[in-house]
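Q: I have two molecules that I believe assemble together. Could you output structure tokens for the complex as a whole instead of separate predictions?
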Amino acid sequence: MRTFLECYPCFLSQALRAGRLATNDEVQIKRLLDEVGAMFQTIPLESSPAQSGRLIYRKVHEVTANPDPYRQIKQRNMQQALGLYPELKKIVARSEDSLLAAVRIAIAGNVIDLGVNHDFDIEKEIEAVLVKSFAVDDYKAFKDQLQRTRSVLYLADNAAECVFDRILIEEMKKPVTFAVRDRPVINDATREDAAKAGFGDRVTVVSSGTDAPGTVLETCSREFKELFYRSEFIISKGQGNYEALSGQHRPIFFMLKAKCAVVAADLGVAVGDIILKSING
Amino acid sequence: MRTFLECYPCFLSQALRAGRLATNDEVQIKRLLDEVGAMFQTIPLESSPAQSGRLIYRKVHEVTANPDPYRQIKQRNMQQALGLYPELKKIVARSEDSLLAAVRIAIAGNVIDLGVNHDFDIEKEIEAVLVKSFAVDDYKAFKDQLQRTRSVLYLADNAAECVFDRILIEEMKKPVTFAVRDRPVINDATREDAAKAGFGDRVTVVSSGTDAPGTVLETCSREFKELFYRSEFIISKGQGNYEALSGQHRPIFFMLKAKCAVVAADLGVAVGDIILKSING
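A: Yes, here they are, computed for all two components at once.
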């Protein structure tokens, strides 16, 4: 997905939010905004927002010297998500179509996105997503192809969201390679976060090699790219991964909630809609 | 009032909004965003947002070659406001304190602010402002000092708001010098706009000499500054004028609705609050 004009004010707001978390030094944050503003001319409309986000968050790190401004928030969200796990399992257990319920729960977890959303109420979100209609609904293809695949490449999004992903992974009953960011960026999942989610033996956690807030392939490791291109079944969670991969011709299922007008427009849906979209490789 | 960190993303959003109205050429708007972003390092936190706004909207003009992107919107709003005038007069006529009702109506008109607000429902706004409590209430001082003053300097804000100002001016029954922007900026009132509001003989319309979206004195004409410093009773409408003049020690009554978190914080009120604040000269 390309960058839209509306992304630039959002980049600046994101830099401000991260800057405020990274430091209390207003002069430093002002310098961050100045430098992010000055970067715009090097961020073309043709690049994906996730690609640009990488540059923005690198600048946050460079100017504030804080490599992980969202660390505490991530930890808090992770504790909250782990506390919800038993209840989420019960919801799946009493569902008519437990796989569908698990997909919905995995999408509900996607609301924990501090790049775009400030405030969210995760329990309310789960309730809503369990009954909401998909604006793009490729569930049938998802279910069919899942039965045939030997393994799943699962592209993680946010840290605490991993607990919700675990629910889906446990329902899929396939070996899963769970790919996370190489270094902290916003509240995205890293290896350290994934380790807390309580995945069992069926899950191998790997780094994609990127520090972008999305699986921007040019910035991923050679090993990950090889894995990506030979995978027969890929789940891509969240906006950042959608932004980075929407132009790929691989067997990807995008699961996300459209949280901003730009991504919603790109998908042809409304803000707030939930999506399970298949790209056939 | 100083510039806050939160103002910078807002400057960029404002540039984007004005740019979209000024031209359909996406490449041109991208250049506008690039150039506004690059300007941040020349906009210190010590300057007022209205001062910075002047630079932003000058850049919109420079890059898009459109000196008045809000022209059509201003005309539409003006027609709407003129259509409301008879009803506004009736509201004042049936009020117990007709001056207070007129003050409230003048503040309600301040909602027509396209720099900060995209959408508004003016009739709903009037209803709300007529009954809402002032978060800062210097009405008594306003009424007392008005009785003693020989004349009023009235600093206009937005174009269609002039019709609402007219209601208050007619109630004050004093000679009024009505100061507008020298050139179009956002939807602020110029001489051309004020001429449409239907002011009677008691009102002299003058230009403040500025093209800032607020009465930024350094950018005003010598004539206006002389007038300003010798005025014994000044009404200042809206956020832009408040931003520019809040640090002055002159007999100013600020009338506005706090529309953004930054101005609300500076005033110590909540977003959406209405204010009639006196500064004693």
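A: One point stands out. The first strand of chain B starts at residue 134 and ends at 137.
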